[in-house]
Amino acid sequence: MPLPMPEALAAAGSPGLGRRFTVSASATDSPVTPNAEFDAWFARKRRANRFNVARIPFSDLAGWRFREGDGNLVHDSGKFFSVTGLEVNTDWQDRGSWMQPILDQPEIGILGIVVKEFDGVLHCLMQAKMEPGNPETVQLSPTVQATRSNYTGVHGGRRTTYIEYFTSSERTLLVDSLQSEQGAWFLQKRNRNMIVEVTDDVPPHDNFRWLTIGQIHRVLAQDNVVNMDTRTILSCVPFEAPNGPVRNAASPEYRESLVRSLSGRHGSLHTAGHLLAWLTDVKARHSFTRRTLPLSKIDGWSHSDDEIAHDEGKHFKVIAADVRADTREVAQWTQPLIAPVERGVAAFLARPINGVLHLLVHAKAEAGAFDMCELAPTVQCLPVNFRDLPVHRQPRYLDLVLDPAPGTLRFDAVLSEEGGRFHHADNHYRIIDVGEDVPAQDDEDYHWMTVHQLMSLVQHSRYLNVQARSLLASLHTTW
Amino acid sequence: MPLPMPEALAAAGSPGLGRRFTVSASATDSPVTPNAEFDAWFARKRRANRFNVARIPFSDLAGWRFREGDGNLVHDSGKFFSVTGLEVNTDWQDRGSWMQPILDQPEIGILGIVVKEFDGVLHCLMQAKMEPGNPETVQLSPTVQATRSNYTGVHGGRRTTYIEYFTSSERTLLVDSLQSEQGAWFLQKRNRNMIVEVTDDVPPHDNFRWLTIGQIHRVLAQDNVVNMDTRTILSCVPFEAPNGPVRNAASPEYRESLVRSLSGRHGSLHTAGHLLAWLTDVKARHSFTRRTLPLSKIDGWSHSDDEIAHDEGKHFKVIAADVRADTREVAQWTQPLIAPVERGVAAFLARPINGVLHLLVHAKAEAGAFDMCELAPTVQCLPVNFRDLPVHRQPRYLDLVLDPAPGTLRFDAVLSEEGGRFHHADNHYRIIDVGEDVPAQDDEDYHWMTVHQLMSLVQHSRYLNVQARSLLASLHTTW
């Protein structure tokens, strides 16, 4: 009897696990959860579910302490995460050597979305989830966000709702890949990004609603609605171009170049092989070593009663927070959070090259990246970190993305990073259609790539950093 | 003016940088360096260039010492490599928790072959190179093996011959990727594997000869001739099937299944997407943490005057060696080496599945692997490590690969690992054509893959471990 033999899919031609995802304008609303109903439900959830987050001295943290010996900030259980010190030495961008606090959380968690077809249209089971660090407490979150301790039930504790869809051996996987998190704040952290399709009835829960991908895209373009975990999962979906009419017909030229960029059948400035060789060259050309060291030993940071802060006021602070739900739900706890000192910017420059949209990708070194650097947006930084530096030490294109020319913004929203670890860590996420204003030339650490090339790379771990993935997800709202 | 726009190559359809490499029987000899001339030259080099390697007490090492404080074995310059301690905790294969010595060498070196066409046939510039740990001192090595310190000239010192072909910005790259080294002995080590094509005259050097890939394949099938660095570079070449007649017509059925397995146009048991999802699942399913610790603190190993050895006589020893060239060349130095306690085995089971050759790949955890596990041969171990364990704790298929059925061995040679770090570290490398004797079924940590799928994955870093890559290179000798 012949074995089941799916014809091998060409990795670049059809990344992913075989289901076709089409960016479809027709599914920007849904009879299952009409937009009006969703908006009312989501507003209700936001009103009803608020955390009061108050800064407290580290000494008021319950269950957390600066450990004897190395001064690392740890939980008594040895679980969750810890804050340790890191020293980096690199010749990358003249950054030399520095020390910093960094989060260490070696577990692999699950970020997962359950999807199901209703009347032939794929819907995602989305959650109105509270996180203490979110600018607005409730954001639109995946079906499941679970640490390994959560889903293996090591600690006892309440079972994560719907986790069984992801741990079942019978699951139908549409996406399953390990992806990195913020390299500036996390030491080699990654999570498992999953999409699981079901056909059976799924028991309803008031904090969850079924939305089409088009409906998620609708709110992804709004400030601080769709959380980071949703964005990173959606970035792993190998979308195909829409067939039908599109929402944004403002720039048919942009749309056409985006359609071509998605397909992989049109030209690209570089072949896939050349892009991989470029990344090899980048890693081999630079020196980069790091070592963890006791948090008590890091230079350049001051440790007061209630924060660990950079001596020049740059980067971020480690703070302690008391978190209380101001609703009927009984919930109170304390925890450390990372609080960046200001709003950042993460922006891709985009332009058609021979009619195919390309994005300018930056191979960016980050302290905690799994392997020294990943592919980042053209610009990704906190501007304050560079204000006192001469122009040649500033990120390239910084002025251009902070003050884009009129009519060039294809995407512009303030989106925040993981609210469970980061406090008001939001960024201007932007996609800027620079057209001929920026030459289609590469530079040592910058290369122009098509959307299809990025979608192919994100099928593997550790190519696109989390900010680039947020923008890749956001790009699909720009039709 | 339109920009240069090579049509994007489908990553799976045409891995690599665009040149077509064909396994060609016609090039098993060459007018540039006929086999008879090569054999005579190589035998002469082996006779004339010998190291006497004598074990010495650690206290007789010059320039090396056990460092105050952590007891790590380090060089006074802080360069080369160091031996540190490592603790691993994992649920993988019931291995639990252990400590071991491990080599730490964070630099990225270059392993590179210069290639050039003579009369339309690609030739590789190969070196007769001495390494102290080689079972026979001289092995057939790439054009260049250089550490970063070598090629950046940090230490002054003699320039590596031909290094300029790899560091030139004008180089024509055919292969360029970062690949891992032995995860059991090295902590996250990788090297840059490169092939550079030249068209100009290359100045000759008596230690170097031009050989076709077919000629290298001829000697790769012999014991201990082709060194590990050559094998790992050749494993990155996306070979196409031969058109013409082939050497080994003994099994036309095997040959046909191998031709189909190379092409990527025939079926495979799994899609590329499913293989990546499987690897995600393997990594997420297992727990695996490690930390470096002082060499003086590792349990289970005994430290005597002249070796650090495992208490049960398993695994390997760290030894100290005095190395002297017994020829006119003046060379003498001392260095630590890793010496495995016996000869190992590294073997792929292979079988046709619906007429397409598949290899049974093992997702194997190794202490120093970059990300907990890589894809390994079906069996890869020192048998002594398992002799006292019950069968269910032994590697699957161990008996089968130690004592293969008659007529099933498609490749069988003793090949050694890097002789600059490892002393007589050789393995039975085997490819065993098991046919219907082994069912075409997967298991949690084992999956059947085509040769084309392996060649596609090896275009990226950190998928295939170095033993699997040696076998992938060796597979191309089995026509």
Structure description:
The structure is a homodimer of 479-residue chains. Chain A is an alpha+beta fold. Chain A has a domain at 252-288 and 342-478: Nucleoside Triphosphate Pyrophosphohydrolase, CATH 3.90.79. Helices cover 18% and strands 34% of the residues of chain A. The first copy, chain A, has ten helices and 26 strands. In chain A, strands 7, 8, 9, 10, 11, 12 and 13 form a seven-stranded mixed beta sheet that branches. In chain A, strands 20, 21, 22, 23, 24, 25 and 26 form a seven-stranded mixed beta sheet that branches. In chain A, strands 2, 16, 17, 18 and 19 form a five-stranded antiparallel beta sheet that branches. In chain A, helix 5 (228-235) crosses helix 10 and helix 6 runs parallel beside helix 9 (451-457). Mean pLDDT of chain A is 91; it is low at 1-15. The interface between A and B is large, with 56 and 56 residues. Chains A, B: This is NDP-hexose 2,3-dehydratase.
Can you tag this structure with a few keywords?
homodimer, 479 residues, Nucleoside Triphosphate Pyrophosphohydrolase, 7-stranded mixed β-sheet
**Helix/strand class of chain A:** alpha+beta
CATH class category label of the domain at 252-288 and 342-478 in chain A: Alpha Beta
Global outline of chain A: globular
Please name the fourth-level CATH homologous superfamily of the domain at 252-288 and 342-478 in chain A: EvaA sugar 2,3-dehydratase subunit
Distance between the termini of chain A: 47 Å
Number of strands of chain A: 26
* CA-based gyration radius of chain A: 22 Å
Amount of helix of chain A = 10-25%
Largest sheet of chain A: 7 strands, mixed
Strand-residue proportion of chain A? 25-35%
What is the name of the CATH topology of the domain at 252-288 and 342-478 in chain A? Nucleoside Triphosphate Pyrophosphohydrolase
**Mind telling me which CATH architecture of the domain at 252-288 and 342-478 in chain A this is?**
Alpha-Beta Complex
Mean pLDDT over the full residue set of chain A: 91
Low-confidence stretches of chain A: 1-15
Individual helix count of chain A:
10
Largest interface pair: A-B, 56 and 56 residues
Oligomeric status of the shown chains?
A: homodimer
